[in-house]
């Protein structure tokens, strides 16, 4: 594909055709190389076009390959700081959380993306990129993180992904820092069923706050 990229814009039609092909066999390495070649050429418009036309695929094997291509194309657009790209990534995140989309959204460092970044904390593959992006946003993410960490399940059975999301949100707050306005919410978390959440909340509250809970 590097050789293809060496042909410059003349290679774009062939690379575009390859990118848009769906391989039912599940082998997608060639399409990934097509993404790399398009990036080398600077044909970001083709990647935008592909993401705008992306769709859910029912076949599970082909779907895995398609997800890999969508993630690669989204990551490749991280450096294209244009409003249309941000809107596209937001639309993709609205439909489904994918690690490549989350990483690209985080690169924009925009508060508009906070709800999607916080939602991504529930997904193991997306969590590292989401955490890094939320740390970059710092104080702007405090309220959303506290709200997420404080949100208790409607039933006694809390899903593991939801629990990991709450733990991640509270851990990020510990790194960003909290203000006194957050203490009432943290006191509620100190009564949570999960011991790790209780421990993190105690670490974030001043000692006198913990004494009030006893």
Poorly predicted tracts of residues: none
The largest sheet, given as strand count, sense and whether it forms a barrel, is:
none
Question: How many whole angstroms does the radius of gyration measure?
Answer: 21 Å
Q: Count of DSSP helices?
A: 14
Helix content: 55-70%
Strand content: under 5%
Which structural class do you get from the secondary structure elements? Answer: mainly alpha
Instruction: Kindly state the number of beta strands.
Output: 0
From the N-terminal CA to the C-terminal CA, the straight-line distance is 65 Å
Q: Which outline best applies?
A: elongated
Q: In words, what does this structure look like?
A:
With 214 residues, the protein is mainly alpha-helical. It has 14 helices and no strands. The protein has helices spanning 2-5, 12-20, 29-41, 44-53, 60-76, 83-95, 99-108, 114-120, 127-137, 142-150, 160-176, 183-189, 195-204, 207-213.
Short summary:
With 214 residues, this protein is an all-alpha fold. Helix content is 67%, strand content 0%.
Indicate the topology.
Layout: H1 2-5, H2 12-20, H3 29-41, H4 44-53, H5 60-76, H6 83-95, H7 99-108, H8 114-120, H9 127-137, H10 142-150, H11 160-176, H12 183-189, H13 195-204, H14 207-213
Helix pairs in contact: 2-3, 3-5, 4-5, 5-7, 6-7, 7-9, 8-9, 9-11, 10-11, 10-12, 11-13, 12-13
Characteristic terms for this protein:
mainly alpha, 67% helix
